[in-house]
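# step 3/5: fold
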Amino acid sequence: MHLDIDFNEDEMIQSIGNNAVREAQKKSLENGIPNVYSKNNVLYYQLPDGTITMDDPFLKGELKLKLEKLTLGEQI
């Protein structure tokens, strides 16, 4: 990661945080986990294929099973 020398401390912290969030989002998608965003109290899900939807993918299919296992403390 390259940081501009002209950054003040606040800008540097913001840049590090932004880079960490982008990396976490990328890893989530690579692992088949949707990214979740909220705008005006509405949840949006970015699926690993890039699709954006308001349908909660954790309410059905494979992600529902994974969530149930995690909630119950079981191994996936």
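# step 4/5: annotate
The CA atoms of residues 59 and 65 lie 9 Å apart.
# step 5/5: archive (pending)
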